[in-house]
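Look at one record.

>
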Amino acid sequence: MRSRRDQIMAILVVLPSLALLAVFVYGFIAQTVYISLTDWGQGAALALKPEIHFVGAYNYRELFTGFLNVRFRQDLVNMVFFTVMFVAASLALGLFLATMLDQRIRGEAVFRTIFLFPMSLSFIVTGTIWRWLLQPRGGVNVLPSLVGLPPASFLWLSSRDQVLQFNWQTLPYFVVLGAALVLVAWGLWSAARRRFRAAALTGLPGLVLLAWALAGGATQLQTLPFQEPHGFNLALIGVVIAATWQMSGYTMALYLAGLRTIPDELREAARVDGASTLQVYRYVELPLLAPITWSAIIVLGHIALKIFDLVFAMAGPDNAPTSVPAILMFLTTFRGNELAKGASIAVILLVMVSLLIVPYLLASFRTGRA
């Protein structure tokens, strides 16, 4: 057993780190949250003693419903589309590369190094390279002319075309409807596993919420008194390509390590039972790679939600079609001196990242204790 002295020594060793963490991480987070609840920036923001008043959730309400904050809402939509496409593309390409390398091809070490090399670069370097490659009158657009075809004319980072448009005014309805469907699905899943208490706590509220939404109650939840279309800007395709090029090597390394740890006995047993190569891959290898997939989703999603340097280097801070909330936070805080509004955007990003990471950490700790 550990002695009392060892316990005290362990606490003393860890205490400085905990103190620094409390001050420079959680202390600054608390200060940012407080600033977001004030009007700092409405007057002389950079004065020695600025006049600051507590305004509560006013800044958050203005960001989501204010007439002058349409860019924030479009930036939020850009971030969501970018996150989904970047994570999906990185996972798919990384899994494909790992599967190819797992075939024990000649020169595997060389290819593995080539695929991993982009990950060693910073997003600033990657953004500068791909900004040259995606010039509207150069780069990849002139590749068809090398084989006698007319050059491409896609505007890449400067395109202002949008697809998958929706009305921000109707967003609360779909949020409520989606939450109701998730609760109902969770309740059914819990009931199927004979967890009837959890099924009642989630399924019944989900059914009530779903009935209320389908009856038209959720249509009264309108964030704006006017229609405001938002959608996926095609200019983001270039940013997604650049980010995927850099991070697909990371997912390749994760998947390759996972494939190499799968015992060959499992594959042989599946083949003995009559499974084809595709069936072995589908029903043996992919399920065993699920924990790696979730870990990659968490890491890539965290990168995507707070993406800043890649977009800044590729398109600049003032290019609205490729802008994301982190870019707007920088402009609002350090160019516009609207410190409270910038802090509100920072807190919103923190909440979104927390919603992604905290459930994963809780599940990991629960699994570790089990």
